[in-house]
Amino acid sequence: MGKDCYYGFLFLGVMALLGSVEADLVFGFYAKSCPKAEKIVSDYVHKHIPNAPSLAATILRMNFHDCFVRGCDASVLLNDTSNNQGAERDSIPNQTLRGFSFIDGVKSALEAECPGVVSCADIIALVARDSVVLTGGPFWNVPTGRRDGRISNASEALANVPPPTSNFTTLQTMFARKGLDLKDLVLLSGAHTIGISHCPSFSNRLYNFTGKGDQDPALDSEYAANLKARKCRTQNDNTTIVEMDPGSVRTFDLSYYKLLLKRRGLFQSDAALLTNPSSKSFITQIVHGSLETFNAEFAKSMEKLIQIGVTTGSAGEVRKQCALVNS
User: Fold this and answer.
1) Residue 2 — very low, low, confident or very high, per pLDDT cuts 50/70/90?
2) Which of 40, 66, 252, 240 is nearest to 146 (CA)?
3) CA-CA distance, 72 to 19, in Å (whole number)?
4) Is the N end or the C end of the chain the one with fewer CB atoms within 10 Å?
5) In the predicted model, is pLDDT for residue 5 greater than 50?
6) Is 65 a catalytic residue?
7) How many CB atoms lie within 10 A of CB 48?
8) Which of 65, 192, 198, 288 is flagged as catalytic?
């Protein structure tokens, strides 16, 4: 979650806000207006994700990045237009996001059934969940009723999406601003068990950590040597793909946390989780626990994430095309 894979505080106030909007999100929101909505989403996912399983991680990341900027309102999908200079999707944390055409495909299927009814924000939330489940990951509840936002600013994405170079204090602060606690931070970081990154998100850890041509001492030296020899052979490599959870990139499991404890987390923000005693203790607890327990806890954190700052009721709109505000 940062430049590639993912780019306290008024906590009670934020949680109160979450509570006030939660009542507007309901299960089966489209039961009368578009009864087949969730089945259409599920069918589309089941038809296409097996042919492109890496999209599960991509759309899960999209869901995270969307919710961290203006709440879960699909603002990350909006194109830059003459009236909107610099959209979220053009910002550095989102320049390697994929899956936009997939979301558009789901939207088209829904529009054919129920024009102007199902929001793009709900589509992201449902597709992220269904895609992860299809690849063997956990199920979480997705209440619906989100509306789509009309504003998308690149600068807001840069300011709100935690970069991969974050230290623990930065991570904790940015999560707390969204009503997410330390436990949520550790659990949601577990999404790095699937997906890929590119060298610019972490190459400074290999080649120039403090600006003196040095390597990050928090990174396992053998792992670093392997990355230099087989992946990011130069500091300027912008194209090579690197698995975030080597050997387990398409399996939603505990491998990410096991590698973390071996100092083999890919990002500086991964390694940062070990610098706080409470988060390190929780990671150890996860590793010694069961996958079922982790899945259940991850699901709870996702259920909090997808209710951040949602737009509901008569606010916002239901876009006809996810990349464009309605005219």
Assistant:
1) very low
2) 66
3) 15
4) C
5) no
6) yes
7) 15
8) 65
